[in-house]
Every structure is written in C-alpha cells, then in structure tokens.
Amino acid sequence: MNPYVSAYKRKSVEIRHESRRNFMSVGAMVMLCLLAMSFLLVYKHAVGQQLLIDVQELNSEKNNLITEQSVLLGQKQTAMSRSRIVSFVREHLDLDFPSPERIRWIRITAPAPEGRRTGER
Question: 3-class DSSP state for residue 105?
C-alpha cells in the first residue's frame, strides 16, 4: 500500500473525527447556553411573581391604612366638635356659658405693652 494514500486516508478520518468533535462541542455549548438562559428566565419569572405578590400586599395594606385614617379623622372631628366639648365641660367641670344678662363688657384703655403695637399678636 502506498504510504501517501494511507496517510491521506488517515488524515481524512482525523479531519472527520475532528469535525465531529467540533460539531459536538459546539452543540454542547449551545445546549449549555440554552439551559442557562432557560434557568435565568424561570428565575426572572419567579422573582417577578414574588415582587407582584409583595406589591399587591403593600397596596392592600395601604388601602387598609387609608380606611383606618379616615375613620380616625372622623372620630377626631366628632371628639373635637364644639357641642362635644361643651357637653364634656358641663358634665365634668360643672362649667356653663353665662347668660347674656350676666355678661359685663369692659373697655380697656390702657396703652399697649412695650414692644407690641396695637393689633399685633
């Protein structure tokens, strides 16, 4: 057998094996990249879902706090109303508004204190 022919055959077989090896390594790299990308997409989706749940919980808590704030503001308005204060003072301090006949108006003609002009507060 001719040594050149056997060398040529051996060379062509090696080239075929090398091209198969290159094809397999490229295929393995592509599969590895696809697997990594799929893991990243699944992770991104899971994190996004968790963040969505957190945002919904925070919005629900915000709405509950707004409702509680409006209830407390209503209670404050009720507690600070003039009629409520007057009834509390009458019950607990035994104070009452004087009748108009009992009111005596006094005109003050004293000069304003130093450092303050009339009409300033």
Answer: coil
Structure tokens at 102: 């009992």
pLDDT of residue 6: 65
Residue 85 pLDDT exceeds 90? no
Whose structure tokens read 């393995």?
28
- Host H or E run for residue 79: helix 3-79
d(CA 28, CA 36): 12
Identity of the residue numbered 74: G
Buried-exposed string 37-48: b where 16+ CB fall within 10 A, e elsewhere: eeeeeeeeeeee
Q: Are 109 and 103 in contact (CB under 8 A)?
A: no
At 105, give phi and psi (nearest 5°). -90, 135
Token readout for 57 is: 């919980």
Q: How far apart are CA 31 and CA 120, in angstroms?
A: 84
- Read off the pTM: 0.49
